[in-house]
Amino acid sequence: MRTAPTDLPHPYIRPERAGAVPLIGPAELKALLEGPEPPVVIDVRAPAERLLGHLPRDRSIPLAELPRHLDELPRDRPLVTYDQFGSDARRAVDYLRGRGFFLTAALEGGIDDYARIADPEIARYGADARDGTLWLRQFPRADTGCLAYLLGDRSAGKAVVIDPGRDPEPYLAALSEGGWDLVAIVETHTHADHLAGHSPLHAKTDAPIFLSRSSPALYPHRALAEADAIPFGSEEVAVLETPGHTKDHLTLRVRDKIFSGDTLLIGACGRTDLGDGNPELLYESLTEKLLRLPDTTEVYPAHFGRRHALVERYCSTVGFERATNEALNQGSRAAFLAYMTEGWPPKPAEFDRIVAENLRA
Ligand SMILES: [Fe+2]
User: Fold this and answer.
1) How far is the centre of ligand 1, averaged over its atoms, from the C-alpha of 10 (Å)?
2) Helices (H), ranges, 99-211
3) Which range marks the domain in which residue 176 is found?
4) N vs C: which end of the chain shows fewer Cβ within 10 Å?
5) Are residues 37 and 67 in the same domain?
């Protein structure tokens, strides 16, 4: 929900929701599980659902059986509950907090998001066998609210990185850990809110940088147009031109997944007044391209979280956004254009400088 400029201390921050169940994101949980003091992880699904896969070193207590197991749970250590998509895990947290287990959080998006985002080795519900060769890792950056992606074809060992942050180390570590050969660095658009990381990553890997043919970037790059494709092993990144948030915005599709940059965010669309954007073009990009994709298409945006006044979820689907996204539910073209052009907080002063820097190198 948008708020009048005077109500917001920072253009992107919104208040915490009252009464919300504490959530932990997949990447945060993975880091904790690998750390010195991992939380106690509880799978609240029915036992039959565990057959497909479960998180490492967890324990199984189906939701209905929680009341009988309270004495076995520590009150002085963090507990994390999870299920398939997150709803039963939230109920479990509500129940446990009501009984004095205050260090309890639910895994946001359930094991399904965990497998998509943090650990592709964990089996996913409904994922077909071929999906097993496509590797996807998401890199959330809590400080900027940005999301970057590493996609790989496991059979060929070839990978691409989308929208890397300025520090190349997380991507270099993931590339070396998986033995990936990086064949492309792709930017969905010229970012205004953070310094992009294509150049530092290129300097370390020599992988070519791909941008829209409409990008005014001054550094060496390869230009992409509608229907172009970047192969990586037997997979490919297909290009959709989706101008609107910026003139040079691309949406990148890999199988049934889109990397939608700031064209389609979770619950919102990227503002069109931060650079060379255009709300009419954004409307066309959404209605003529992205909303024509099947509802099951997975949506991986470039931003999440409070810093961008967004939900704390990291991925969605076209169908979920079609049903719930505030920008997409304005009812008419005219209402959408008004929504995108009225009532936003002022553009932060440093954005023009960031754009200039992102175009220079
Ligand atoms: Fe952006």
Assistant:
1) 17
2) 110-117, 169-178, 198-205
3) 128-360
4) N
5) yes
